[in-house]
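ESCALATION

Customer reports they have been waiting on this structure for their group meeting. Please prioritize. Original submission:
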Amino acid sequence: MTEAIKNRYEFVILFDVENGNPNGDPDAGNMPRIDPETGYGIVTDVCLKRKIRNYVQAVKEDIPGYDIYIQEKVSLNAMDKKAYESLGIEEKTVKEKKKENPDIDRQIRDFMCQNFFDIRTFGAVMTTFVKAALNCGQVRGPVQIGFGRSVDPIVPQEVTITRVAITTDADAEKKGTEMGRKHVIPYALYRAEGFVSANLAQKSTGFSEEDLDFLWEAIINMFEHDHSAARGKMAVRELIVFKHDCIFGNAASYKLFDKVTVKKTNELPPRKYSDYEVIVAESAVPSGVSCVRMIK
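Update from on-call: job pushed to the front of the queue and completed.
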């Protein structure tokens, strides 16, 4: 296993959506998530991490060390079982094995970290109550991503559509179309912020420099292989990375995030990325921290 990272990082992601719904809210009829007090749009951290997982799964499929723990239509117990099988442990003999080998819990966690990229990156709770015997413990991941928030308030639109695919035979005899609705945002630019802890990487999951490089790649491309009509046109426009020259960092994260500002270039409602200007105050970055704009 390669050596864990030695530097702390913070990063800012700017991504946009055009004529789409970036993250539907099931509590509001799948409308785009919105802060009801301010009107700013929201994209959850879970949504963003799902896109990253999907990219890793697409690009690194069947490559050792890059399996994904949280997958669609695959149970967590099925993934947990891989660790037990690798150590030659059967469910019915788990308790006896743990008495014989007190270090077995650590070995199980190490297996999960070494083989699953998303556990190594984001951490995971690998304890379920469906089959208590399959307990792989808990791991706190070194990479954390906050909610995405739109730069300006959004105005979701409910668009009425028609379809020629009739649901039932009886309806097909009476009509040729059915009505439907879809929710879209004409345009919005979102900002999300994240953290990478070298301390947790070294103590917990072994997240390496190779993993970090691939994480940047996955973030930049997380929408490129996940297009759909419902989500419209989405793209990561900026990935701004702050690298500290030590494990615990040289400046507070909020001071670094404040170095990145986004301003409108005109007074009209924004409809494209060029309606904004992104300013990175690189000359004002504190000593011991370097800043890199990953998308040229």
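Sent to customer with the following note: The first strand starts at residue 9 and ends at 20.
Escalation resolved.
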